[in-house]
Amino acid sequence: MNDTARTGRLLLVDDDGMLRMLAAESLRHAGFEVSEADCGEIALHACEEDEFDLILLDVMMPGIDGYTVCAALRRDARARWLPIVMLTGLDDTDSIERAYAAGATDFVTKPINWALLTHRVRYALRASRALAEVRRSQASLAQAQRQARMGNWQWSLNDARFTCSDELRRIFGDLELAGSGTPERFLSRVRASDKTMVDAARKALLHDGTAYRLSYAMESLDGRMVEVLEQTQAVRDAAGRMVRIEGITQDISERVQAKRRIEHLAMHDSLTGLANRRFFTELVTVELARTRRARGSCALLHLDLDHFKSVNDAFGDAAGDRFLCQIADRLKLSVRESDLLALNPPMRPAEMVARIDGDAFTLLLIDVRVASDAALVAERLLHSVSRPLLLDGRELVLTACIGIAVFPRDADSVENLWRHAEQALYAAKGAGPAHCRFFDDEMNSAASAKLQLENELRRAIGEGQLRLHFQPKVDASSGRMSGAEALVRWQHPRLGLLAPGQFIGLAEECGLIVALGDWVVGAAARHLKQWSNAGLDPVRVSVNLASPSFQQDDIAEKLADALRRVGISPRQLVLELTESLLMVDAERTIIRLQSLRERGFSLSLDDFGTGYSSLSYLKRFPIDELKIDRAFVTDVARGGKDAAIALSIIELGKQFGMRVVAEGIETREQSEFLLAHGCSIQQGFLFSRPLPLDRFEAVLAAGGRFDVGLSTATNSVGG
């Protein structure tokens, strides 16, 4: 720091040249840098062009006098706090008061004592710098308070006067809080639910000086409710008497709102706004405790939409979310108080509706008098869900199933009640769409057995317990085998050989169906390779492709890779798909089918006629084969509707250039009728039951011929 920076830059303004010379010489000798001006106009111009640390200003000058110059400088923001020492030969009180009124910092009378002048200037500069530091500290404090949304206030106990900072006034938008404001008026703005707490804390502070720190809310003039955190202390004089109370009040509205948002997100479903599983469990826990004390009853209803994954596949996840929000709104309206009180006998409204997973919802009915009350509400919910939904002009009809568990009849804890309601839901889904079921002990036993079987199935896939059986497809005109369908069996170590109907549904429910399908494809490919290596006649094998497997975007590449690793051609494998599977999302289905065809796979439409595909889509599907469902084959030889449908499918296959296969052939009459009408490829017990690997390989080794003249239901090679 140089000397000038340490001492200061001065502007000396006086019309007396001799005085300016003597004063300037004295000040320079003391180390100050001095500029001079002989009139007020030049002084103002100099202040516009340069900056000074202090001005020595003569009062009486021709033109603009010192009072006018001083007042003009004080109007300039840059010179508002500049030290101005007036030089005056006038020693009357009025002149001194006028100097101070114009904004002077100090005054020096003439004749000037030059030794004292330098000291007065130095002290004035020191005081100016100290004040500047105070202003900087105050500005920094004010900035910090603005950033922290924090204001301070004082309550004088001597005159009961309440004062507060500018930031506190900004927080509450009320300029009257200061000055004429009173503690009572301040308290009147406190939220009603918080007034008792705040009033008690302040009375304790007044009584014995007990400081407090608490959060409450205050209403601002514009009606906003502002959440604040307040800390106070009592200030005492030297004698120990309380003279005032000081407080700091911070606006924590954003923090409180963020906390509430976090708590809401933690307790509610982000999509529908309904309670989530965690929050709902807490509510149920409280309600069960109340119900137990009252020796009452309540019911937990677990609702799950039927086949909602197909909706997401067809319309997209975004549309699916919008459908779920509509369903959530319907469920809330369906359990509103006015509806439940209208029941006979009336029922209190549901405590809460919650979304606990994907398309699963649950609700608690309290004060249930008889179990049938819960069934009435369940039926109301099912009816509400089944009303058509609209989205962008498209209409969709959904159904749902509901499982019901009653407390304390079915369970004595939240966990068991929840588990039993879910088991009841599985039973409802087993009965078909739009069903509701109650829980019972038999259902619980069945659920335990089902869980054990599920765990065993997981092990079976990886531990070599699965087997493939093969049911031939026979050309009824020649008796030669034209292909075979691979059917999975489970060689259970305890239960023996299990048919697909005993575990395929379980695999679908527990998410094992894709892994099971992958095993079937891999096993069929390995057998095809072994037969080729053994020199047996080539045969095409059909495998069923489940919906979850087909819905994989990379299914074509995945299947092709599996066959490539084994070393067989996709042309040796026929993929059988159900009609309903293809209609979930026709456009995406067509893309997947074309991708499979491009890789060489043949495609078969299984159970044709039982679904709802339209001819316009069927014409676009790249299908190679139609399979007439056994439901139309049973009575086909008797004519009637079944025969008409079967013949229509045969004709449809001819027109579209597709092979037609009839399955479920058990009698010679069925076979001959279909053969006579152009369907020669047939499959059923008339020719052969599904054969284990060794017996099927024996058929291959024997040339794959069947005696189509047999009229018995079991062929000699079928067993």
From TrEMBL:
Domain PAC: 212-264
InterPro entries the record matches: Biofilm_reg_signaling, CheY-like_superfamily, EAL_dom, EAL_sf, GGDEF_dom, Nucleotide_cyclase, PAS-assoc_C, PAS-like_dom_sf
Residue span, EAL domain: 450-704
SUPFAM superfamilies: CheY-like, EAL domain-like, Nucleotide cyclase, PYP-like sensor domain (PAS domain)
Keywords: Phosphoprotein
The Response regulatory domain, residue ranges: 9-125
4-aspartylphosphate: residues carrying this PTM: D58
Matching PANTHER family: BIOFILM ARCHITECTURE MAINTENANCE PROTEIN MBAA, DIGUANYLATE CYCLASE DGCP
Protein name: Bacteriophytochrome cph2
Source species of the chain: Accumulibacter regalis
